[in-house]
Amino acid sequence: MFKTLKIEGMNCGHCAGIVKVELFKIKEVIDATVDVKNKNAIVQIEKPVDFEVFQKAIEDAGYTLTQLI
Predict the structure, then answer these.
(1) pLDDT tens-digit profile of 6-26?
(2) How would DSSP label each residue in 1-69?
(3) CB contact at 8 A, 68 and 7
(4) Is there a smaller number of Cβ atoms within 10 Å at the N or the C end of the chain?
């Protein structure tokens, strides 16, 4: 299962790296690709994850999760 996270505040590769580290702290996350240009992350998960869990991970990285698709 894949989810797309719309993220505000990222502007470089370092930003993407920080987001990726925080996403991999979520045990259900199998893989994550962060795209600074499109301001999103595509995350592969093994079972459903609540919006709030993703939101906390993105906030811990220093950014804002605006939408979960």
Answers:
(1) 999 999 999 999 999 999 999
(2) -EEEEEEES--SHHHHHHHHHHHTTSTTEEEEEEETTTTEEEEEESS---HHHHHHHHHHHT-EEEEE-
(3) no
(4) C
